[in-house]
Design a protein that fits this description.
The protein is mostly helical. The chain has two helices and no strands. Helices cover 82% and strands 0% of the residues.
């Protein structure tokens, strides 16, 4: 019973935060940074096969 009450309260907090838009979303700058990091990692992996 205690677990059910805890999960329900967490779900309520999450839905309330979504309504208030307090949950941070990824911005365009975040997506660009993630893309650059992924490309550099892929180049390193591909380069490692040829060395």
């Amino acid at each position: 019973m205690e677990f059910d009450k805890e999960t329900e309260s967490r779900i309520d907090k999450i839905t309330q935060a979504e309504k208030e838009n307090t949950i941070p979303r990824m911005t365009r700058k975040d997506y660009i940074a993630a893309t650059v990091i992924i490309l550099i990692a892929l180049l390193g992996i591909i380069g490692g096969f040829f060395i």
